[in-house]
Amino acid sequence: MITGSLVALITPMTTNGAVDSKKLDDLVEFHISQGTHGIVAVGTTGESSTLTPEEHSNVIRQVIKTVNGRVPVIAGTGANATHEAIDLTQAAKDAGADACLLVTPYYNKPTQEGLYQHFKAIAEAVDIPQILYNVPGRTACDMQNETVVRLASVNNIVGIKDATGNIERGEALIQSLPEGFAVYSGDDPTAVALMLLGAKGNISVTANVAPKAVSQAAEFALAGDAEAAYATDQSIAPLHMNLFVESNPIPVKWACAQLGLCENSIRLPLTVLSEAHHEAVKQAMVQAGILSL
Fold first, then answer.
1. Which of 166, 220, 219 is nearest to 189 (CA)?
2. What are the pLDDT digits (tens) for 108-128?
3. Residue 93 among the catalytic residues
4. What is the per-residue DSSP string for 168-196?
5. Which terminal Cβ of the chain has fewer Cβ within 10 Å, N or C?
6. Please, what is the end-to-end C-alpha distance for the chain in angstroms?
7. Nearest to 72 by CA among 37, 104, 22, 34
8. Coil, strand, or helix at residue 83?
9. 45 labelled ligand-binding
10. One of 23, 120, 161, 200 is an active-site residue; which one?
11. What is the pLDDT of residues 237-278, one digit of tens each?
C-alpha cells in the first residue's frame, strides 16, 4: 500500500507555455531529497485539463523514468469520457506507473450508477491499481460513500482520494470500507485529522513548496502521534489556506516560482496569480520558514 505524503506535482512550464522538461526532472529530485513519499503526476495541480494527451503521457513517462523506482509514482489518468480515461490509464500502465488516480467525470454530471459503471469499466479494461478521486468542489460531481463502497469490491480499485474536506464524512467512509482499501486525504487543512482517523496518506498541494514538513506531519499522523503531527502541521497552516486564494494551481505555481523551482507560467484559461494576493502567499511562505524576506 502506498502511504505518506504524496505530492500533487505541478507541471513546470517555460515562459512560452511549453512543458519544462529540465525543471520537471529537478522537481522530482527536489521531492525525493526532501522526503516526499510518492509523486502524483498530472493530477489537477499538474494542469491535466490543459495538457494535450501526448503531453499528458510524456510527463508521466518522464516522471517515472526520473524517479527510477525510488518512490511510487501515481499517474493522474481521469477524464470525463470513459474511453479517454481508459486510454490514459493504459498509457500510464505501459509507462510503468505504480497506480493511477482517476477523478470523477467533470461537467457532464453522471448519476451514481454512471460513476459506478465508469470506474468499473476502467478497472476491467486496464490491470493496474486504481485510486478514485472525489473533489466535488471542482467537478460538480459528488461520489457518495455508498458508491465508493460498491466500487471497493471491483478488482484493481484499491483506494480513494477524498478531497471533500468533510472529516465526519471521511471517517464514516473509512469505517465502511473493507480492510486494505486506502483512503487518502485530498484536502491539506484537514489531512492530519483524517490520517489520525485511519487515512493512509495525503495527496498534497502544500507539499510542492514545503515537502519536508508535509512528509513529517504525515509520518507522525500515521504513527498515531497526534501532538507531533498537529504541531508540525501548524507550522505550515498558513500555506494550506493561502495556496488556495485563487484556483489551484495558480497560487502554488507562483510560490514555486519564488523558490526558483519553476517559471511563473500557467496555461489559459488559468492566469498567473493576481498581484493583490502576492503578499499573502509570500507571508505564508515566510511563516512556514521556506522563504526569507
1. 166
2. 999 999 999 999 999 999 999
3. no
4. HHHHHHHHHSPTT-EEEE--GGGHHHHHH
5. C
6. 40
7. 37
8. helix
9. yes
10. 161
11. 999 999 999 999 999 999 999 999 999 999 999 999 999 999
Q: Do the domain assignments include residue 123?
A: yes
Q: Annotation-wise, does 128 bind a ligand? A: no
Q: Which three cell numbers stand for residue 111?
A: 448519476
Active site annotation includes 161? yes
The alpha carbon of 60 is separated from its chain's Cα centroid by a whole number of angstroms, namely: 14
CATH code for the domain of 164 = 3.20.20.70
Structural domain boundaries enclosing 36: 4-235
Q: Cα separation of 162 and 137, whole Å? A: 11
Mean of the per-residue pLDDT values for the chain?
A: 97
Q: What angle do CA 4, 280, 76 make, to 5 degrees?
A: 35
Confirm whether 261 is domain-assigned.
Answer: no
- Would residue 147 count as lying in a domain? yes
Q: Is residue 241 part of a domain?
A: no
Name the active-site residue from 23, 116, 120, 133. Answer: 133
- Cα 166–chain centre separation: 17
CB 183 within 8 A of CB 196: no
Structural domains counted in the chain: 1
Task: Note the pLDDT of residue 102.
Answer: 98
Q: Could you tell me the sign of the dihedral formed by the alpha carbons of 15, 19, 20, 26, in that order?
A: positive
Phi, psi of 261 (to 5 degrees): -85, -20
